[in-house]
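If you are new to this repository, start here. Below is one unmodified record pulled from the training split, so you can see the exact layout before writing a loader.
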Amino acid sequence: MTQPTLIRRGRDGVSALPAPLRTALALAATGVPVLPLRVGKAPFGNCPQCANNACGGRPNMKSAGACTCPAPCHAWAAATTDPAVITSPAWMTAWRRAVCVAYHPGAAGLTVVDLDDAAAVAWARTVLPATRTVATTRGEHWIYRGAMSSRNAVRPGVDIKSTMAYARYLGPGTGTMTALPDTVRELALKEPSPARPAPHGLTVAPTGEAECPHRTPVYLERGIAMAEQRIAEARSAVHATVYRAFLAVLSTHGRCSCLTDAHVARLFAAAQAKGETLRHCTDTWTNARTRLGL
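And here is the target side for that same chain:
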């Protein structure tokens, strides 16, 4: 994303245009699709004709009877680079009420890693490759070249915004934008963390009482050891690696009574040695069990 430059002047100069609109036109000129945000940093609501998907579809989406509504009421799907649309009467009404500008990262070939607090920023600085960064109210946006699927809560305080999502434009940022790394792509592979903390006293081992199909305890020991090694050897995307290791153990041993709290404690210890907190371990274990229906 390049530094915006003013590209449109009216009879009274660019100052006659709402500030968010001036920013939006500049971004659109660089190929970044934009849309206005109202108070609360939310997109404008559906107009009556489009409420409850009554219009039959959304612009920029593949669906029968695609919407032709001129108003910017379809969130990320309304984002556009067309100055004629951006300055149309319906959009001008929105710009006069807008408090800031949003853009559709995926359509611009970008991915935004939204770090919501200081802890998330500190994590990113130790795990993710450096790229263009933009300060936010509580954290930072790290912007990479390349698009991917969006995903919220890939770890505490971290969202990924790219395709089918919008991000606020908060300035050009600093640093050189780099290519989207596999580290970020792998984050989207894990199950999102639960919104609420796991209750104290949670029993982390399965409670299954099915007959154990394994001939010898050695089979379980080998599985735990392999999971510990997999976690210990992770050089990036530690959280995603921990999730996959937990999933592998549970998929094999989660439905019988051979897996004990002592085994799970070993897995948690391996994850914590790589920087995961006990809360993260418990959430990830719960997510893996839910994924398998345990």
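Two things worth knowing about this chain: Confidence is low (pLDDT under 50) at residues 2-14, 60-64, 192-203. Residues 215 and 258 are 11 Å apart (CA to CA).
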